[in-house]
């Protein structure tokens, strides 16, 4: 990047209004982000009801085979409340609460994994935007101190824990020397909104709308903060993969994970959805601003990530929301797909 462009980038970044978050909504192509690997901790069982809750698939679609529905949950439509009248981030337009009407739909139980995405790439020779651009954003603790010093100018100005790093993409999610060994079942990251749309399309699916995502997140409950209720840690257990400790230097990993966790780790509600909050942010089909006809408009993302902590990014609530431009990619941003019922 030329000096002039770098300066313009930093200027643009500085001009962003600082708000209390992890800075990952500023990871536009002209700025920075991150992510990682993890050891498996004891599996957290976040269930309120027994499995096989979704046996009604068969009643709903008697002709469908189990395989066709495999990995998806049927989310009942109807009228549902989304948003909240008690917003934590007013600028995010979490409020007001409103009623939406939805048709029944299916939603992936899991975030799309690296193994899933690899299948897609193998079948289609798809090249992600991060691969075409030649870089993506990773979190600072994925870089060695000497790398951090070297890349100092490629940090996001008001979120200096994000670095734009050449050669980082979904195949090298944690730095140019990293690979997917052991991460097959972790969520794919460094995928732009357009990459996510391409994947879902290939799979015969689509991205969920924000309303669909949020209704699914709420698991049939009304006005609760989290998919399972209002308490962050019922039974003193961790129900999601977020940050414990001081941000950005002291992640105590009490939930078992410093970075991403496998997509099937935290079962969070009666719809049998895993990691719907936490782990990685998830793209939705919605524009951040209705009618935005820009070249790379902002799209709504939901659910927060492993980098979120209540002190600065209390966005792992169902009503919370944030945004990135369509071409953005980062180490804490992935997706799951939906399908019409
Ligand atoms: Ca964690
Ligand atoms: Ca998630």
Describe this structure in words.
The protein has 341 residues and is α+β, with helices and mostly antiparallel strands. The protein has a single domain, classed as paralog of FGE (formylglycine-generating enzyme), CATH 3.90.1580. The chain contains eight helices and 14 strands. The strands form five sheets. A four-stranded mixed sheet has the order 12-11-10-13. The longest helix is centred in the N-terminal third of the chain and has 13 residues. The protein is globular, with a radius of gyration of 19 Å. The N terminus is likely disordered. The site of one calcium ion has 7 residues, from loops. One calcium ion (CA) binds next to loops.
CATH classification class: Alpha Beta
User: In total, how many domains does the architecture comprise?
Assistant: 1
CATH fold-level assignment? paralog of FGE (formylglycine-generating enzyme)
Straight-line distance between termini: 47 Å
CATH superfamily: paralog of FGE (formylglycine-generating enzyme)
Q: Percentage of helical residues?
A: 10-25%
Strand content: 15-25%
Tell me the number of strands.
14
**Mean pLDDT score:** 86
Q: Counting H and I runs of at least 4 residues, what is the number of helices?
A: 8
Give the biggest beta sheet.
4 strands, mixed
- Strand pairing plus helix content: what structural class? alpha+beta
Numbering strands along the chain, what is their spatial order in the largest sheet? 12-11-10-13
Query: Which CATH architecture?
Result: Alpha-Beta Complex
> What low-confidence regions span 5 or more consecutive residues with pLDDT below 50?
1-20, 31-58
- Radius of gyration from the alpha-carbon trace, in angstroms: 19 Å
Q: Element order, helices and strands?
A: HHHEEEEHHEHEEHHEEEEEEE
Shape: globular
